[in-house]
Each structure stands twice: as structure tokens, then as C-alpha cells.
Amino acid sequence: MDFYENLFEFSENDKDKIKIDKNIDKNLEKIKEIFKYCDDVIYREFNVGKEQKLKFATIYVEGLADKNLVNEYVLKNLMVLSRMTKPDANIMREKIYELIKDGVLSVSDLKEIDDINLVVDNILTGETVLIIDKWDKAIVIASKGWPMRGVQEPETEVVIRGSREGFIETLRINTALVRRRIRDPKFKIKQMQIGSMSKTDVAVLFIEGLASKDILKQVVERLKKIDIDSILESGYIEQLIEDNYRSPFPQMQYTERPEKVAGALYEGRIAIIVDNTPFALIVPTTFNSLLQSIEDYNERFIIGNAIRILRYIAVTMSLILPGLYIAMTSFHPGMLPTVLALYIAGSRDGVPFPAFIEAFIMEMSLELLREAGIRLPSPIGATIGIVGGLVLGQAAVEAGIVSSLMVIVVAITAIAAYSTPNYSFAIGFRILRFAFMAAAAFLGLYGLMLAFVITLTHLCNLKSFGVPYLSPFDIYNINFKNFRDTFIKAPLCKMKKTPNIINGRDKY
């Protein structure tokens, strides 16, 4: 057994196996008892043959199975079989699967099962199960067909130049969107179920030969260890398998863009796609990858780098600007030019609060406006964000609660924070901003530097599935070729091969 076969070998279902009986009435009785009070489960019983009658039954869930497929290609064809006057009973018993598969049902996928628990599981996933009297097995007919949203443009990752396709809530559609971009048999998709009650389908995507076997083993083993009733969104998986849940920084990257997943797989990363959610997870992730946009690679070298550098500057400003204002106005006004110092003093004249309280009030107001804008319907949310910010800022200045310069600082901070491509990453910086403000309020610039050093130390110790979070800035494993896609991006003609940050192989 090779590495991949051993890795993806799953233990049998923990439930006790309930063998299918040769008596169809006993089987139906067991299934109906399990699905008691489940009015959406449809049973269709009929007989084959007029003289030697053989009883058949189909079972499916209305709304999960494609009713047209069941009626046209399953029931209709079985009804043709039922018109046989004298079916050979021995053939019907011994070769029923071959008869049904080759001569009756014109559907794409059929399989045999011999366990009532598997019958129940398949029915609940949208398949149709065919049970036949005097036969101790059942036939599972592929018939999934629930209502689904069409492939649309991603709403959370808008780009000017790039694909307009985004993931939806159906796992197999999402894997197909990635497969279209990686037409290579080395691209592997392995599926498992997680959640004792929800039995959510989870797919692990990787490219054999590029993905690190050590990282792949960590990912699969952590997924196997998950013991939970339900998985309703990919965020559950993220929280259950991340390295350090106490860190404000995300150790996995999420996206709803299939080309971003494909690009990550080409780099040797691993993707996790969860059914019922349009967001895929990418592991491992690094500090730099969270500040990169898919559009950086679609634009020319100079334009892409200009945007990326601007993004790094904006993130730095969003983190330290309020704290820097507090430190300079409260502890180090002498470091400012005289004209600027006098202007700040004049703008704060009459403000009853110290700079920290002033900044705290404005930052909290901004966070409340941002949260309200997200929770309200889109047209109202946008209006609340713009009008609320203008009215609140103007009223606060006129009331003398905050200075006009503080409003400008908070506004610049908010605009800078919006430039972060990853929402979870931006939230981490928003939390740390308050810590930096508190440090500046106690120790001025010294406190600001202390907070920066503590944050940097935390980032140095943080790992994502064994990969240092600050890669490739790892003093123990420096390879300057990996610097071609960090703060700036090298021309595409210099980046024709996959990087070795993840898999440890020099492919440049």
C-alpha cells in the first residue's frame, strides 16, 4: 500500500451493520421505522410479472432527489420490466443487478449495498434506493438533484481583471470549477464525511508531486480526528484544525474564487472544500499570502507591484496610526514640527477627554457603524455606513467631544483597513489596533514599539501546518529565490515554476 492509499484509508462506519433481509417487507419495515415522521421520504412499491410476481420498492427524499430523473429513467423503465408475464425467478434472483444495470435503468451510476445503514445514508444524500424481494442487497441509483444557486461572480472578492466565476454551495460543482483549471491527472480530489449527524462531505484537493506529503498527512489526520455533531460551514473546519486558536491571525486562507484555489494548488498548497458553503480553505498560509490578491498576477509587473506596496503601507497605517496619534499628542509633542504641534493643540482645545479616550470613542463608533452596515440589507447598510459616518463625525466635532484631526486619523485608518484582501486578517489587525492604542497611552512611542515587538515575536512563533507564518523570512531556511513573490512580485518571466516555500523543493 503506497503513501496515498494508506493516508486516505478510512475506518468502517461505527454503527453496527444491519444486513439487508431477503424479505422486502421486513426491510421496508426497518426503513420506515428509521424514517418515522419523515413525510418527505417517498416510497413506491410495485410488482414485476403477472404470474410470478416479484415485489420492488424505490425510496428517495423529495427535494433532494431529481424527481424527473426518478420518474423518467427509474420508475418508467421498471414499469416496462413489470409488464413481463413470466419472468424467470432464478435469473431475477441471481442476476438482478446485471439485469437492472445493463437492460433496465439508463442512469449514469449504480452500485450495490448490503447494509440498512448505508441505505439510510444514501437516501439522505439524495440518491434513490431500489429494494427487491428475495434479494439480500439493494441498488443505489444516482439521482441527486436539489435546487441550487447558479455559478455567479464572487461578492467578497471583487476584481477588475479576472474570472467572474465563484464557488457555490454544491461541492461537486466547486471541484469541477477547479478541475477545469487544472487538467492534469496528478490533481487529486479525496472526499470524506465529517459530522456524526450532518455527515457533511469534505473534499481535500492537492497536486501529487507538488504538495508536501508531511503537510498533506497533517491535514488529513486532523480532519480524521474531528469529532463533532455537525459541520455547517468551512469555518467549523478552520477552527477545529488550526494550529493556534488563541492567535488573532488566521492560519488558513479562505476564498470563493476557483482560480485562487488553482493557483494555490500549483504552489504546492492544499485546498479543503466543504459542501453547503461557497468558501474553500487553503493551507498552509503565510503572512504574505494573506496580503496578496489574485489580481496582482493578472496585472503587469509594475502595476501589480505598485498596488501590492500600497496595500502593505495601508495595512501598517491601519495598525499604528491611531496609536501614533496618541503617542505624539500625549507624550512626544516636541518631536512634531512647531506649526503642526500648534495646530493639533488648537484642534484639541476644549476637548474634555485625553487622546486615548478620544481615539477609543471614535474607533468604537466606527466599528459599530461597520458592523451595522454588514448586518443590514445591502442598500440600507451602504447608506448607514456613509451617512452615519459623516453625521456622527460632524456632530462629535461640533459637540467638542473629539478633535477634527482625530476624525481625519480615524477616517484614514478605516480606509486603509478596507484595503486588506482577507476579511479575517483585517479583523485581526482591528483587534490589535486597540492594543497598540492602549500601549501608546501608557508608554508613548516606547509602548508602541513594545507592542510591535510583541506582535512580531508572536508572528515569528506562529506556524500554519508546520510552515513558519513569516515565510520566506525564516533565518534558518533562507532562499532568496523565494523573495520573488513577497513585498514585490518578480516579472512573470522569472516565475515560471512553482515556489519551494511550501514543499521544500526548488522548482524555480
Automatic annotation (TrEMBL):
GO cellular component term of the entry, any: membrane
Q: Name one GO biological process term.
A: spore germination
InterPro entries attached to this UniProt entry:
Spore_Ger (IPR004995), UPF0353/GerABKA_families (IPR050768)
- The residue ranges crossing the membrane are 309-328, 373-393, 399-419, 431-454
Protein origin, superkingdom? Bacteria
Q: Which UniProt keywords apply?
A: Membrane, Transmembrane, Transmembrane helix
- In which family does this protein belong, per the annotation? Belongs to the GerABKA family.
In terms of PANTHER family, this protein maps to: LEUCINE ZIPPER PROTEIN 4 (PTHR22550:SF5), SPORE GERMINATION PROTEIN (PTHR22550)
Q: What is this protein called?
A: Spore germination protein
Species source reads Caminicella sporogenes DSM 14501
